[in-house]
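Intended use. Records like the one below are meant for learning the mapping from a protein sequence to its folded structure. Do not use them to infer anything beyond what is encoded.
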Amino acid sequence: MNIWARASELASRTPENRNRYVDFLRAASITVVIVGHWLIATSWYVDGRLATGHLLEGRSIFAGVTWLAQVMPIFFMVGGYANAMSLDSARRKGHGYAAWLVQRLHRLAVPLVAVLVAWGAIAAALLLVGIDAGTVQVVSRASLIPTWFLAIYIMLVVLAPPAYVAWRRFGMASFWVLAALAVATDVAFFAADMRALGWSNYFWVWLAVHQLGFVWRDGRQGGRGVLLTVAGGAFALLYAVTVHGPYPLALVSSPGEVVSNTLPPKATLLFLGIVQFGVLLAVEKPIRRALDRSTLWTATVLINGMIMTLYLWHMTLMAAVVTALFYAGGLGLGFEPGGPSWWASRPIWVAVLMVLLVPVSMVLSPLERGARHTGSSVPSGTRQVVGATVLCLGVAWLAMHGYLGGPIPRGDMVALGLVVVGAAAIGMSPRLARA
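Structure written out for the chain above:
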């Protein structure tokens, strides 16, 4: 049975009460992220050398496009919806915090740890064959940048139960408090030059967007008119603070920026999340009707069946393809990024990478579908929280610096050690149940 037939069979067994739009948004967003990364990270062959760069560097004309391409708020909103459903299910079954958390962390940590450990081995192998440390650092960092999302999302999963309790008790006030903290953090960042405090917005911004998923799950978003009005107001605010305020126009990071909207996150991403919340929920009903048709829903099921693997390995695959083309004399890498010929070649570039990524993901995706063995002991909630925090500290270091990089000697080995220790603490077992 081929991959499409398997996905079609799974799609046909979808329960009637499942909100297919949640899965569709997750699949569509991951596709945008992958294609965006393949376009924005540029490589070209010049005089026998491989030059690398960033599409936005020196090209402010593309900054406006990032308002469409920045879809990370959608992931956190969808995550809030999914976590609310999972928590309700756990409550009905009588499962406590530790029992709920261990399953969620396991599904996230197994494929994440696999890619980080694999890159440790790849980095060592590259050094052994004579590749210089600087090149290894650049390539590993580019390949592991996607892991930052898992670092913060794992921490949001840890905080999801108390966040959901706050939502059930205080309603929209639980969102507005987080939104106010995000804005206040930016005020301190710009007005008082409290740059270190800005990193706390990894929590305030993304927790606030995550709360919007609870709003959606409980059907508290209002009608289409309300949604579009809210989206319009948030868009006007986003426009004002980027065009006339202190925030850059680009909603993704680019080299040479004095201030970034994403590193650390700024309230602009919260405003964008509100825009996306309003617009996407305003069109939910017609798209849900379209998802009742088999083809679109089968494609959604296919992507979601290996979504973590697609996301975690897409930059590694591109690095491997670029390396192969470089040693083939720069085949296909002769176009200077941003030029007409380069843009004309991008559909082929994306298509080739996608054709290669899918079979790789099929091989590795059982890691994300494996469940913990039923008889495995459940670590205490405290141990899991500490373990998840340690794990995420290691992930954050490697996402930011890659292997052989960073201000601390052997910092990459310390970070990898934190990942392994954290994974063990949360009860991640090398043995997986059959996917």
